[in-house]
Design a protein that fits this description.
2 copies of one chain form a homodimer. With 208 residues, chain A is mainly α. In chain A, 65% of the residues lie in helices and 0% in strands. Chain A has a domain of 139 residues. Chains A and B meet through helix 1, helix 5, helix 6, helix 7 and helix 8 of A and helix 1, helix 5, helix 6, helix 7 and helix 8 of B. The structure holds a DNA duplex (30 and 30 nucleotides).
Chain lengths: 208, 208
DNA sequence: GATACTAACTAATAGCTATTAGCAATGCTA
DNA sequence: TAGCATTGCTAATAGCTATTAGTTAGTATC
């Protein structure tokens, strides 16, 4: 009795990607079993091979879907000349995206710790653009961390992502769920404040 | 031909702990196999059971050894009343310890992502003390992040540790090995500068 | 109405997992 | 010298892993 598409829900490949994304993000590539993915979708594991060539291809698809979702709004920002206000906008968008799709940060962290297939793609598409000087820049003044510039980029990035990846450990210690919507606002404010301190007393963050 | 203690090296249990610590830190609890641990020590995996009850006990021993190494120098600092200079000392010591023994940060990150046995011990012994008000405090002025205090503690911690756990991803992007000795100095300076900005223009970091 | 395609299934594989049982060699102690 | 605890080994277990082969039931097309 196959092909019982429930008609109510998403197509199977998408449901597989959803389940695999959550599991890869939680457990990493090696510790995720296709049986668990299949269980979550509600099918048997060999049926996964009707939609993805093998485990690595499934992982690659998960990574690709996440990367395109993240790089799209940032590519747009990269077109305009780089101003201090542009940096603030970029930061806020990044923070909010990581809160809405926390799985990329988790996947990245697993890849950094253990290595995974396609780690190059993650680095090249997400990180490398931040380290190359933009084509038309206004050379923002970086304040007291002048010669530490690349390290500051790494630091800000890590700060945003480690908030996501470490959140479960702090749930009891903060009075609040660190991944709830209130916390998102709080983290945006903290990051913006920090950035303002680091970049100098320049422009204040834009108010929505 | 057993009991061939090479006489040159450390006792076996310690060598097992060393190997297991590296592997657990790199791959996490679930993805680490006892066979790989044994290979690295140079024995067969059943021989591990002569020294540790099972995989979980081995992991517990790794965690415990790391925690005692880390909490010792910090407990000492916690005795004295809390001053701004004390916070700077605490920060610098923490950064340097994480550079010398990067495995605790990696283990913590795996535990936060996937959950592992004994995660409570990690949180209780390492994090919880930072969130409880010290017995005799001088109520340091936290500057522009006043009501964000617990979030700032979490942020500084994450900043220090994510530097370690994310380092491999940035190796190509920075011009330098992020875990080399020069980088340690650079990170200490960055963190101290940041802390100075956050805590207000208070005391400058002590020069050794 | 016959045919091809899709997407599910079961059965089976080779290899790895932690763990146990039993054996053998060594070194310490009486 | 006899005995014992330590610590290594091999062999064997039950269970999980990704992956393949072959089958079957629906769906769309001619």
């Amino acid at each position: 009795m196959p092909a019982a598409a429930p008609a109510t829900s998403k197509p199977t490949p998408e449901r597989i990607l959803d389940a695999a994304e959550d599991l890869f993000a939680e457990r990493g590539y090696a510790a995720t079993s296709l049986g668990d993915v299949a269980d979550r979708v509600g099918i048997r594991s060999p049926s996964l091979y009707n939609h993805f060539r093998n485990k690595e291809a499934l992982y690659a698809a998960v990574v690709d879907r996440l990367l395109t979702a993240f790089t799209a709004p940032l590519d747009e920002l990269r077109q305009a000349p780089l101003t201090a206000e542009g940096i603030y906008r970029w930061l806020e968008i990044t923070v909010r995206m990581h809160h809405q799709r926390p799985n990329l940060a988790r996947l990245l962290q697993h890849a950094a710790l253990s290595g995974s297939p396609h780690t190059d793609a993650l680095v090249d598409r997400l990180f490398r653009p931040m380290f190359e000087p933009p084509q038309n820049s206004v050379a923002p003044n970086l304040g007291p961390v002048a010669e530490l510039q690349p390290w500051a980029v790494m630091g800000l990035n890590n700060l945003v992502m480690s908030y996501i990846t470490m959140a479960p450990m702090y749930r009891d210690l903060l009075g609040e769920d660190p991944l709830g919507p209130d916390a998102e606002e709080k983290q945006v404010r903290l990051i913006m404040t920090l950035a303002q301190l680091v970049l100098g007393t320049g422009e204040p963050p834009a108010q929505d």
